[in-house]
Design goal:
7% helix; six-stranded mixed β-sheet; five-stranded antiparallel β-sheet; single chain; mainly beta; 374 residues
C-alpha cells in the first residue's frame, strides 16, 4: 500500500511514535500472518481525502423502500445493487433488503427479514447465477431497535419473500460473539466476521476465515448463548417471546481463523461502526456521523485501514463529506447530512455509502462515492 502527501506521512509517524490511540491489539504473532495478497500492496486509500467532484458520485438521490437510512450496501457488477435498511414506526422489526438499479428508483424488488437485527454490514454473493445475501440474523429487541445478531445468515434472494431467522436455512456462528456482521473477499476465498465479545465490555473482534472452509463445515445444533427477545409488534403476528433458541449452524468455532484481531474499545471497537470491508490483507473500517440535520455543523467520516497483524496503517478523513457547499451544489444535500453507511472494494475501486437528505423531504436517500485506489 502506498500513502501520499504530508497528511498520510503524519499519520504513519504518529502511529510509529505511539501518538495514535491504541485501539487494536494483534492476537497472532507476525510469523503467523500471511504476506499481502498479490494486487493489493499498492493501494492508495488517501484519495478519499480529495474534495468532492462529479466523477466521485456513483449515485445520489435514490431511495430504498422506507424513509429510514440505508445501513449497508453491495454492488452486483451488472448495474444493480442491494441495500439493507430497518423499517420505521411499527415496522422496526423488519430488516428490508432492496434490489434496484444503481442509479434509478425503477424496477425495485424487496425481501424482508423479520427479527434479523440491524443490518450494519451485508454482503452479496453470486453463485451459479443465483444471488445470496449475507447478513446478521437472530437479533434481539433492546427497547428501541433490533440488534446484537448472534448468527450470520446466507440467504438466497427471493423477491417478495419474508423469512424469519428460523426460516433462513444456512446460518454461521462464532462462539462468544454478538452483534456479528460479515464481509467477503470471494476472489481470495475469505470471510470476515466482526462482532462484540460476550462478557468483555467494549471489546470487538475481527476474525478472518477461509470462505470455502467455512461453507464446507458440517451443520450442527447449538443453543444461542444470549437470550433473544422478539415479537409483540403490531403487524408482526408474533407475540413477544423470550428464548435461547436451538439453531442449526455452521460453527466457525471449529475452524482456525487466518487472523483474529482484538479491538480494545475506541471507534474501531464499539463506536460509530458504519461498515467494514475485507480486501486482500487489508481490513477497511468506516466510521463517522451525520450532523443531526443542523446546517451549522459538518458531518464527519473516517476510513481506517488495518493490516492482518492488527496495526492501524492509515486513517483518512473523507473530504467530500464535510464540504457542505459542494454537497449542496451537486444536489446531494442542502443540510449537510451525510451519515456513513457501508464500504466496499471491487476491482481496485473503493465505494463509500452514505445516507443523505434534503431539508424539504424526510426521506433518507442513498449516495455512493467511488475512488480509484489502484
Amino acid at each position: 500500500m502506498r500513502f501520499r502527501g504530508s497528511v498520510c506521512l503524519a499519520v504513519l509517524l504518529a502511529c510509529a511514535c505511539g501518538k495514535e490511540p491504541q485501539y487494536v491489539t494483534p492476537v497472532l504473532p507476525p510469523a503467523q500472518v500471511e504476506q499481502p495478497a498479490e494486487g493489493t500492496g499498492d493501494c492508495d486509500f488517501s484519495v478519499v481525502q480529495s474534495p468532492l467532484d462529479a466523477a466521485m458520485v456513483l449515485t445520489a438521490g435514490c431511495t430504498l423502500r422506507y424513509q429510514s437510512v440505508m445501513q449497508s450496501f453491495s454492488l452486483c457488477g451488472d448495474g444493480y445493487m442491494y441495500g439493507v435498511q430497518v423499517g420505521t414506526s411499527t415496522n422496526k422489526y423488519l430488516l428490508n433488503v432492496t434490489r434496484k438499479p444503481v442509479g434509478s428508483d425503477d424496477g425495485k424488488q424487496y425481501m424482508q427479514l423479520p427479527f434479523a437485527g440491524h443490518g450494519a454490514s451485508m454482503e452479496h454473493e453470486r453463485v451459479a447465477g443465483k444471488d445470496y445475501i449475507w447478513v446478521g440474523s437472530y437479533g434481539t429487541w433492546n427497547g428501541s431497535k433490533y440488534t446484537n445478531s448472534q448468527t450470520i445468515a446466507r440467504i438466497p434472494f427471493e423477491a417478495g419473500a419474508k423469512l424469519t431467522p428460523a426460516q433462513c436455512g444456512e446460518q454461521y456462528y462464532v462462539p462468544g460473539l454478538r452483534n456479528v456482521s460479515p464481509a467477503l473477499d470471494a476472489e481470495r476465498d475469505r470471510l470476515l466476521v466482526w462482532g462484540l465479545a460476550n462478557g468483555e465490555a467494549d471489546t470487538g473482534y475481527f476474525k478472518v476465515y477461509s470462505l470455502s472452509a467455512a461453507k464446507a463445515l458440517p451443520i450442527s445444533k447449538i443453543t444461542l448463548e444470549r437470550e433473544i427477545v422478539y415479537g409483540g409488534e403490531e403487524g408482526s403476528g408474533v407475540p413477544e417471546t423470550r428464548v435461547k433458541p436451538e439453531v442449526s449452524v455452521r460453527n466457525l468455532g471449529s475452524l482456525s481463523p487466518i487472523t483474529s484481531i482484538r479491538l480494545n474499545g475506541g471507534v474501531l471497537g464499539t463506536g460509530a461502526n458504519q461498515g467494514f470491508e475485507l480486501y486482500g490483507d487489508w481490513i477497511l473500517h468506516l466510521s463517522g456521523s451525520g450532523n443531526d440535520d443542523d446546517p451549522s455543523k459538518p458531518s464527519s467520516s473516517t476510513l481506517t485501514v488495518l493490516d492482518f497483524s492488527g496495526n492501524v496503517v492509515g486513517r483518512f478523513n473523507v473530504g467530500a463529506v464535510s464540504d457542505k457547499g459542494a454537497l449542496a451544489s451537486y444536489g446531494i444535500t442542502d443540510t449537510g447530512f451525510m451519515e456513513a453507511e457501508g464500504v466496499k472494494v471491487y476491482d481496485g475501486v473503493l465505494y463509500l455509502g452514505y445516507a443523505t437528505k434534503h431539508s424539504t423531504d424526510s426521506k433518507r436517500m442513498v449516495t455512493i462515492f467511488q475512488y480509484k485506489i489502484q
